[in-house]
Write a structure and sequence with these properties.
Blueprint: H1 21-27, E1 32-33, E2 47-48, E3 64-66, H2 75-85, E4 88-93, H3 102-107, E5 110-114, E6 136-141, H4 143-151, E7 156-159
Parallel strand pairs: 1-2, 3-4
Antiparallel strand pairs: 4-6, 5-6, 5-7
Length: 168
């Protein structure tokens, strides 16, 4: 008997995953959130660009908080932009083998692989009843943000040195 295929669903069937305030508070303050949700229960940075304002088309400044769309076709553009900016922290799925994660390996100062799965929030600030189904990592770009990862107190494994092995 053949079993029906049921494709996996993603949390909330949305690419909007609101960051728990405890994570932002542990790492902040931030100057810019180019992927701010709208509506949102709190600001993650002093300046917040929503989907309507298209953060990729705006000028980035200061220390950036980045919780980009988790869509595999979109996330790489956001990571590349943060890598070019060179100052900030991104909250990502720990998909270390993907093409889009390559920019993290090439440009990041450090990676904090979180010890527990993140439970993201709805627009009203209430925790979703499930996690995203994947481990998350905080990726720091720049010395200041690496220091923030070191001192944030969030449980996990901090990686600051790695070697890029290229296939022969």
């Amino acid at each position: 008997m053949r079993m029906p295929f049921n494709p996996p669903t993603r949390s909330g069937r949305s690419q909007i995953h609101l960051t728990p305030r405890s994570i932002v508070d542990a790492l902040g303050p931030f100057d810019l959130d180019p992927c701010a949700a709208n509506p949102r229960p709190w600001d993650c940075a002093r300046v917040n660009y929503t989907l309507h304002e298209n953060g990729l088309r705006q000028r980035w400044h200061g220390r950036v908080w980045l919780n980009p769309p988790f869509d595999r076709y979109e996330v790489g553009v956001w990571i590349s932009r943060l890598a070019e900016h060179g100052r900030g922290v991104a909250l990502l799925h720990a998909r270390t083998d993907t093409v889009w994660f390559q920019r993290c390996w090439e440009c990041a100062s450090g990676l904090l692989f979180l010890g527990a799965r993140v439970r993201f929030l709805r627009a009203d600030g209430c925790e979703l009843p499930f996690n995203t189904g994947a481990p998350c990592v905080l990726v720091a770009f720049g010395d200041h943000d690496l220091a923030a990862l070191r001192g944030c107190g969030l449980a996990g494994a901090l990686v600051t040195e790695w070697e890029q092995n290229q296939p022969q």
